[in-house]
Amino acid sequence: MITADQVLSGREALLAAAGHHPYARHALRPDRPARGWRHDGTVGWLLAPGEWSAGGAVGPPEPALDVFAALRADGTLRPGQSVNLSRVAPATVTACLPVADSRPGDAGIVDWYGIRDGDRLLACGADRSRGDVGFLAGLTVAPGQRGRGLGAALTAGMTHALFGRYDQVALGVYPDNVGAIRLYRRLGFTNVEHRTSIRLG
């Protein structure tokens, strides 16, 4: 089994080790226990049962894969659970872990926002906030309504609402969605963190 360079216990210790990385702040909720580790420059964690993901990591993905593979081998991580780490090639993942699915994205919706015209929903987005970071996800505009500024209005409105509760707001977007990336940059979303979500086989 991989021996971590340092065992970490509790959210504050993990956040300090991760340099208060926004993704760690998002994943680690203040009201839930977490335990983790530091290994070869990567900080990772396991979340309490019933959370949206079994664990995650920030930093280079290879050390995270080493630890997650060891935890899968000893039964700590089980089939069907998911872990989230920095972007890594699928072949690198499958060389280390039995994988049922590997993708950007995950579940855990807190609330929904939308723009309506009477009883018609024209645009909607999900609030997937957790920890102490607001998080927008699943933003979409009905096909016949695109090009009218609804995506920008929805994103700006959701961002404004989440800034009422959080000091930092982030969102998820697939890297090939160039139009959305252009819009989000125009609205002030500038820093990028590439992630990979893996459901274990």
Structure described in brief:
With 201 residues, the chain is of the alpha+beta class. Helices cover 28% and strands 31% of the residues.
Secondary-structure blueprint:
Blueprint: E1 6-9, H1 11-17, H2 22-27, E2 34-39, E3 42-47, E4 55-58, H3 61-73, E5 82-86, H4 90-96, E6 99-103, E7 111-117, E8 120-127, E9 134-141, H5 150-163, E10 169-171, H6 178-186, E11 195-200
Parallel strand pairs: 4-5, 9-10
Antiparallel strand pairs: 1-2, 2-3, 3-4, 5-11, 6-11, 7-8, 8-9
* Strand composition percent: 25-35%
- Biggest sheet character: 7 strands, mixed
Number of strands: 11
Integer-rounded radius of gyration: 18 Å
Model description:
This protein has six helices and eleven strands. It is α+β, with helices and mostly antiparallel strands and 201 residues long. Strand 4 (55-58), helix 3 and strand 5 (82-86) form a beta-alpha-beta unit. The relative contact order is 0.15. The model has no long low-confidence stretch (mean pLDDT 88).
Keywords:
201 residues, 7-stranded mixed β-sheet
